Every structure is written in structure tokens, then in C-alpha cells.
Known about the structure:
The chain is of the alpha+beta class. The chain has one domain: MHC class I-like antigen recognition-like (Murine Class I Major Histocompatibility Complex, H2-DB, Chain A, domain 1, 2-Layer Sandwich), CATH 3.30.500. The protein has an eight-stranded antiparallel β-sheet with strand order 6-5-4-3-7-8-9-10. Strands 1-2 form a two-stranded antiparallel ribbon. β1 and β2 form a beta hairpin. The N terminus is likely disordered.
Amino acid sequence: xxxxxxxxxxxxxxxxxxxxxxxxxxxxxxxxxxxxxxxxxxxxxxxxxxxxxxxxxxxxxxxxxxxxxxxxxxxxxxxxxxxxxxxxxxxxxxxxxxxxxxxxxxxxxxxxxxxxxxxxxxxxxxxxxxxxxxxxxxxxxxxxxxxxxxxxxxxxxxxxxxxxxxxxxxxxxxxxxxxxxxxxxxxxxxxxxxxxxxxxxxxxxxxxxxxxxxxxxx
Length: 218
């Protein structure tokens, strides 16, 4: 999901966020990752919003604002019933609305009245063979790392001066999004990962976990 439009490169966001994830590789295990992007102006071949889901580096489903549907990509995900896809579509629509608002909010914080701008998020969980887990939630705006969840202190760390306003709001006693998102990732995300591993066991075992979302280092 690296973007480069009108001379403003968002590839730094993709590279830095993904590199940060890969810096925390583990000896063996599995990962569930979500990559989401919202743009201020649709075009350049990009939908206004999209989110892509990976298990062990294999894309399993995606949603975008053009289709308005969450759909399976991996064949084994087609085993999920219609109710699952209907429910997931409604969840994605809610995330889409939130991301569109994020773009507008950050444009206001940066005194931007127009032009192409993008908000990106990489979040997920990893289940190691020893039973331990690792979770992360990282955000980017206009080609720069923007916010990152400190899972120890349960707060979002601003990575640019412009991110401080959003970090203060997310960390406020009224919102406490760090606490909420860590709890979600350590529980619901891991629960979903276990289910996906069951559905896709044959393909995942055949691939041997060679996707970029899994490490087999000895």
C-alpha cells in the first residue's frame, strides 16, 4: 500500500511501518496484520478507503470504498458463511467513516485546505509457538510515521509535532484508546488469528510460513 502521487511520496510510511514490524520478528509463529489507507481525494487508481488483511503474509480478504464489500481473497476464506461477510462489511464501513474523519482532522491540524493527503494504519498481532503474543498499532500521515501505540504504558506516542494533538486526545481519560486497542489486539485479534489458521491450515502449512509476516529463523 505504498503511495506516490504528485511528488508527495507515501512510500516512507509503508517502508518504515513495515520495517518496524519486521524488526520484531520472532523465531517461529503466526501473524495477523491489517493495512488500512484513506485518502482525501479518490483517484490515481486509489479508492477513498481500503483495508487489506494478511495471515502469515498471505492476503486473505480486502475491502474498499468502491465496492463497499469485504470479500475473500484466499480461497479457503470462502468457507466463512454469508453472515460473516455481511458482519465484516458493516464493521469495515464503520472503520471507513472513522478513517475519512481522521484525514479531515489531520488536514485541519496541518492547516491543509485541499490537495492529496493520506492516512495509513498498520496493526496486528503475532502468536508465537511458545504461546506468547506481540501486538502493535502504528499510524502514518502523508509519508511520515505519525503515531505508535506503547503497549507497556497504554498510550499513543506522537512521532511528529503535528501528531501531539491527536495523541493527547486519544490518551485522555475520556478516550483511553491505547488501553482499548491493546485489549482488542491481545484478545479479539488473537482469537481471529487462531480461527484463520484453522481455516487455512492446509495452504499455510504448504507454504511453510515463507510470507513476510512470519519468520522461521532458527
